């Protein structure tokens, strides 16, 4: 039987297995001779052929009558008009492509264009809508997307799927255009890359326009891109420190790194350290007040050297150390505030479990905390106890401070020598590995050869001795080096056959002076210069003297009182000094010790809120928080949807110490009024407390089910008698 295709459009290519018919003569000559396939072209000829076949009762030989591609595509596009400017050739190409897919051709073609099949065939939902809005389709194929959108006309999300402006809808959902879309809830996916710059610019402008107040109004858990907003807020608040308050700080700190949290902690200068402060108070002053301000002043504010406020604050600490250091040397090593107590701590831990003791040369307190943030990222390691500050052994140079750290003796001991290896031998256990022998450390960990493994690394300290540009050193090279040390520590843990049994202790010998320093132009001839210290005594008022007998040293040592230095390994282009240490500035003296493990199961934190008050009047909410964990809870923020003042989160100034139960009141600006239909005078409270474990790991807990507020009001109907007076 013959197969005939009628093509009145004359647009389609004739397949090679068809005999073309373009005139009546060709039709008469060919028709009926064979059972070949025939392709008839031309509107008039097709009408003639169809009439001829009808007359001979042969219409069943017509296999297909080709329609104009515009008609075919118009039928497929339904209510979406086909652009008039599309040529017949373009329409034919598009139709051929669509015809190559047996089912759902538009979705198939969009999947091919975008390289993403899942979006175009998935069922409609909030998550699907979010993914589709973020999918960028080339403008020339946008009409196909409009056709695809028609299939969702009867879905509950049809209003959003039928949008003519995807980008506008996406901006509104992200909260960077108005009106916002509360019905869809929080955008469930990361901010699309192509909108990140616009998102950041929007929030930066909003923060500046509101002078930071917008942070008080947002609920972080319900805001899109809170991590990005926090980083932008950190940048803005650094430039406008007078906009910082506890509420704003608490909103953003859970989303910042440890170093960034500290930067916002105190950007206004503290009072000088009182000379009669206890060691605990001095350590708190350095870590909580001086160092955050010092870092902001040096890194962000960058005043001239002679205008640094923090240098004058540091001088009060120098006076305190000169007065109190001799007294601290009397305490037993194990209970000492001095850094050599770390070795005793390590020995005690070794009685319970194997220990990897990482001694990072030159790691000050702030750098210590930043290293912890890298170590605890993505729950790689967890803090077993809160990081503790210690006073370095004086002077704060490696040959003295590190020797004492290992030997648990002061440098005045007859055994003192500028050899850390000999000092470590006094530990009486384990083995010490330097950077050159780190491969041996890996092998020892794999074989479980010791109870104590010590990695003594000077890569961080060497960084300060080799760099010549302070800003790039601090903002680029320093964090890169800390991250590299963290990766090696994690690698060490992975080598141990049972990594969950291994404790990791992080410690150091001394810190580094922040910023650039001047070089002292003339060194007194009676001194032997060694950076910020010199061997010998001098009456030069630019120095303070550590007498060997009083400060337990092998010889008298003179220390530069200011931030200046006698010399250094490296200098900037303008001949200023970088990375000198050995003096008495707080960042040189105060170092940290912390203990971590592979994983620690955090116990559930309990919080209960109960109170009684009169409606429409201020009240107090009694809060009880029980922290059964070995680290404190910090950065507390309480969310209670039933209380307007707590709806967007209220920051709590309290820190909850490890293994303690704390009770405290907080003010309710106005006790709410119960609705007329409420059967009791109790309002049940729900909500959430968010916090950080020791400023590092995020955590949260829900309010206990017995949390409630007893409300006293005259009429259960909701009317107040004052309205009738």
From TrEMBL:
Protein name (record): PglZ domain-containing protein
